[in-house]
TrEMBL record:
It comes from the Bacteria. This is Beta-phosphoglucomutase. The chain holds residues 730 to 947 of 948 of the full protein. Mg(2+) binds at D8, D10, E166, D167. GO terms for biological process: carbohydrate metabolic process. GO terms for molecular function: beta-phosphoglucomutase activity; carbohydrate binding; glycosyltransferase activity; hydrolase activity, hydrolyzing O-glycosyl compounds; magnesium ion binding. It comes from Longilinea arvoryzae. Substrate binds at residues 8-10, 24, 43-48, 51, 73, 111-115, 142. Keywords: Magnesium, Metal-binding. Belongs to the HAD-like hydrolase superfamily. CbbY/CbbZ/Gph/YieH family. The active site is at D8, D10. The record marks S111, K142 as: Important for catalytic activity and assists the phosphoryl transfer reaction to Asp8 by balancing charge and orienting the reacting groups.
Length: 218
């Protein structure tokens, strides 16, 4: 039985992937580096430093410059999230969180973003989580299972009874590596290794999902 639901944030509960894209794009334009929305798809779930290294594609940059670029991108990103409100929750997010709560399932947040707390506060959902962990909570980021295992520990739910909701391939790997159910949110092509995929949170019925998982093997 599923006793804990762990949510990724960016691209699952809200479309901040687009805001990450715009912040990276502005930085890349300033540096004269080509960067497209399609390139950004591969950065879903990827931590800040690793994202920048991928954008630089082997261009040599000093550690000092790397730090400066990461800070500048973050400044652009933080500016854009300051405008978020509860209207920026993706369709179905609020009602899914409410249904899980009603079903007695513990709810956790497992986001690689160091801005995660600020974002859930802006979205007006911070108080719905029984546990929140972000990019600063563990050393090894997704696809390592550490962040989700940490959240499961905070929820007091054993990993095998947790279901993770993720839009990124790295997050699906992390959930599987932790022995959890991996529920993909988004296109099948990106989420091939998920146990089950929904195009969006608004397609999920908690009872159907629980039924489905109870009849499945990991
Ligand atoms: C999430 C997003 C990534 C982002 C990462 C770090 O995983 O999907 O696009 O790079 O968080 O976010 P941060 O806000 O700490 O730079
Ligand atoms: Mg994500």
């Amino acid at each position: 039985p599923v006793q804990g639901a762990i949510f990724d944030l960016d691209g699952v509960l809200t479309d901040t992937s687009e805001l990450h894209y715009r912040a990276w794009k502005r930085l890349a334009d300033e540096a004269g580096i080509p960067f497209t929305r399609a390139d950004n798809e591969f950065l879903r779930g990827i931590p800040r430093r690793e994202s920048l290294l991928r954008i630089l594609k082997g261009r040599k940059v000093s550690e000092e410059k790397l730090q400066e670029m990461m800070e500048r991108k973050n400044q652009y990103y933080v500016e854009s999230i300051s405008l978020l409100t509860k209207r920026d929750l993706l369709p179905g997010a609020r009602s899914l969180l409410d249904s899980l709560k009603t079903a007695g399932i513990k709810i956790g947040l497992g986001s690689a973003s160091r801005n995660a707390l600020l974002v859930v506060e802006k979205l007006g959902i911070a108080s719905l989580f029984d546990a929140i962990a972000d990019g600063a909570s563990v050393v090894h980021q997704k696809p390592a299972p550490d962040l989700f295992l940490h959240v499961a520990g905070l929820l007091g739910v054993s990993a095998e009874y947790c279901a993770v909701f993720e839009d990124a391939a790295a997050g699906i790997e992390a959930a599987r590596a932790g022995g959890m159910w991996a529920i993909g949110i988004g296109p099948h092509e990106r989420l091939k290794n998920a146990h089950w995929v929904y195009p969006g949170l608004n397609e999920i019925s908690v009872t159907d999902l629980l039924d489905r998982l109870s009849g499945m093997k990991k």
